[in-house]
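User: Fold this; tokens only.

Assistant: Input:
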Amino acid sequence: MERLQNEIIINSEHLKRQMKITIFGNYGFVFLAFPLVSDEYSEENDRKIIDEVSDYINNGVFRFVFVPTVENRIWKNTELDWAERSNLHYKYNSFLVEEVLPSIFKIAGSPTPIITFGCGESGYFAGNSFFRHPDLFFGTVLFDAFFDIRRFCGDRFDENCYFNSPLDFLPNLEEEYWLIHLRARKYIHFLADETDNESLIQAQRLSQILKSKNINHNFEQYNSTEGDKITIWSRLFVDIVKRYF
């Protein structure tokens, strides 16, 4: 498995820093994963997901590409003022679309299907990236994600906040271009722990919005009665892969 791990450095013009992308696998479509705990890939935490699906990676079914987040997940970083956070997320979105995706396509040798993946806080970035760009991403797999950032923006909820808050912009989405792409996607999966009231309520609301737009998706509830969250997320991911991929 070690020989299938690789790293590339992107000298990001948008973020004005070097960004390390960690890649597992040589073939197949791509899961674009956002680190589970910290801004960067962690051998201690994120590797658990990789170990659970190593057979799929070794057999060339899919690659796993970890892309870092920045500044301790941007919106929750109170050391930055509100305007800095808003501006940073704008640049981060540009980094994903204009720098990460071309790098992945270059590695693959051609455009390849990309499905975003994240859990908890990283699930927000994975879900937001997909719902903002369903013309670029083929789907998303999310566990215990949140889908709005109003509590981080407060009364500074501007246009940039709005378009990074799926529970706000999706209900008003009417343009056929975006709806056609969303309705064509077959891999929209999100799960919520029924013991986590906030996560569950947000997932339920997202499901209602998608239903109202005739967007096919799979929403499930689970009960985290045993094990730490990362272990639970790893097992849930294996189950989703077995059933749908």
